[in-house]
Amino acid sequence: MNIQSVYILKDRGILYINGKDVDEFLQNLISNDIKKVNNTNSCFASLLTPQGKFLFSFIIVKHKSGYFFDCEKSQAEGLFKQLSVYKLRSNVEIMNLSNEFVVAAFNHEKFLSFEKAKDTPGNTIKYREDSILLDPRNKDLGARLIINLEKLYLSLKKLELKDTNIDEYYKFSHELGIPQKDMNKLQNKLFGIECNFEELNGIDFKKGCYVGQENTARIKLKNKLSKRLLPIQVIKGELNENASIYSGDIEIGKVLINNEHPFALVKYLDDNFNEKNEFKSENAVVKIKIPSWIK
Known about the structure:
The chain has helices at 22-27, 73-87, 108-112, 152-158, 166-176, 213-221; strands spanning 5-9, 12-18, 43-48, 54-63, 66-72, 93-96, 101-106, 124-127, 130-134, 143-148, 162-163, 228-237, 244-247, 250-257, 263-266, 279-281, 284-288. The chain is an alpha+beta fold. The chain has 2 domains: 5-176, Gyrase A, domain 2, CATH 3.30.1360.120; 183-288, Elongation Factor Tu (Ef-tu), domain 3. β3 and β4 (54-63) form a beta hairpin. The radius of gyration is 19 Å and the shape is globular. The mean pLDDT is 97.
């Protein structure tokens, strides 16, 4: 990312959750510890099925008396409904503010130029009353500004940031090995821990019970993590969603996201998997790389 580039992520949605019971409500649901989130720190987390399968992922940012949930816009309404199901009699208000607030991403180095900024994933500072945070998943993804749409362009001008094509941002994210688009295609198809959420700072194994905690902890403690969500590089052909990936005649993975930034669930510990090799998948030849931050 260029230090002056900013990517206006119009495909991100914003939920706002507050109320007297909000901390207890979220603590019983999400895979991370809500106590980590305050005016100087944000976190990445997920909402899983009771079996520990992936449903939703989001970045949580403190805002006034509650929290912003920064999620893929295509997941925003589903996340809103799922949280509402769990709400029951809790004193909690959930609002979808996706049409009012926007997320803008920019360079890691630019973030560090701000006063009080720290080189720590999740570090959060204020620009006037708006939050700027270093991406809690991986600081190489840069920083994020969450701001009212009406103030966006004036603030970007004052910050000396220039609007850049968001395809550049998502290409970089894919090269880094972090999926952010078409996350609905992952729902119920793999465990949250198989999405590399531990390495992306999205799971707290010390916080106690939450939805899906039992299987997540079991996979971790019994060293049962044999598959991971990994980025695919298409050498030739076209990927099909849910198509198997083969090393010779041996299946070593399955395509889950087949967009321009594809990902597959891969048996990365299998003797038949070697990053240096090319693999076949129906109408495509691909390569699969394990991101350096996993090793």
